[in-house]
Design brief:
The complex is a heterodimer of chains A (114) and B (111).
Chain A (H helix, E strand, L loop, with lengths): L3 E4 L2 E4 L5 E7 L6 E7 L6 E7 L5 E2 L8 E7 L2 E6 L8 E8 L5 E3 L3 E5 L1
Parallel strand pairs in A: 2-11
Antiparallel strand pairs in A: 1-3, 3-8, 4-5, 4-9, 5-6, 7-8, 9-10, 9-11
Chain B lengths: L8 E5 L4 E6 L7 E8 L6 E6 L4 E2 L4 E4 L5 E6 L8 E9 L12 E6 L1
Classes of the chains: A mainly beta (114), B mainly beta (111).
Chain lengths: 114, 111
């Protein structure tokens, strides 16, 4: 089946630094990828929709200058958390829709900002 | 906003069937019912999806009512590894609409 590889699985960074999270579709082409974040004991919240070769679409309340999304190829989308602060600590998850119509999720990235 | 309503939590004895209900009374004709589950600190895992007919795969069965306003996910023989949060989501069949997650049901399988 479709596989989405997400890295890193865990990252700890200092406040004020930037962190990049990568998501790769391994056996299919993903023209669109979705980025979510999840705070403890809460559900997944959609942050943005990433389209290959064009600008991402951000959900209301998500700062596009803080969460930079790049979808330069049909198999790779990246999310960069810029100038990270402790309140950005969260579980970030990507997802892509495969050719069969199903949605596949990455394994998630646990970001801790200290 | 999520278009589904699920009980916040359920318990199930190991080896018994787990029946997880979901209400989606405002579902549109072109929307499928998807079920995913999330084990702690992992990404959501696909379980099953359907439009109007009942569906079965190696993981579970999906029963959709005739009016499509509700559905039930059945795990026929629950194991401890099935302990997770289960999400019922409705979404259009085509295009690139993201899945919108509600709060889900936290299923605890008890030995």
């Amino acid at each position: 089946g479709a596989v989405v590889s997400q890295h890193p699985s865990r990252v700890i960074c200092k406040s004020g630094t930037s962190v990049k999270i990568e998501c790769r579709s391994l056996d299919f082409q993903a023209t669109t990828m979705f980025w979510y974040r999840q705070f403890p004991k809460q559900s997944l919240m959609l942050m943005a929709t990433s389209n290959e070769g064009s600008k991402a679409t951000y959900e209301q309340g998500v700062e596009k200058d803080k969460f930079l999304i790049n979808h330069a190829s049909l198999t790779l989308s990246t999310l960069t958390v810029t100038s990270a602060h402790p309140e950005d600590s969260s579980f970030y998850i990507c997802s892509a829709r495969g050719e069969g119509g199903g949605y596949t999720f990455g394994s998630g990235t646990r970001l801790t900002v200290v | 906003d999520a278009k589904t309503t699920q009980p916040p939590s359920m318990d199930c004895a190991e080896g018994r069937a787990a029946n997880l209900p979901c209400n989606h009374s405002t579902i549109s004709g072109n929307e499928y019912v998807y079920w995913y589950r999330q084990i702690h600190s992992q990404g959501p895992q696909y379980i099953i999806h359907g439009l109007k007919n009942n569906e079965t795969n190696e993981m579970a069965s999906l029963i959709i009512t005739e009016d499509r306003k509700s559905s039930t996910l059945i795990l026929p023989h629950a194991t401890l590894r099935d302990t997770a949060v289960y999400y019922c989501i409705v979404s259009p069949a085509g295009g690139n609409t993201p899945l919108v997650f509600g709060k889900g049901t936290r299923l605890s399988v008890i030995a």
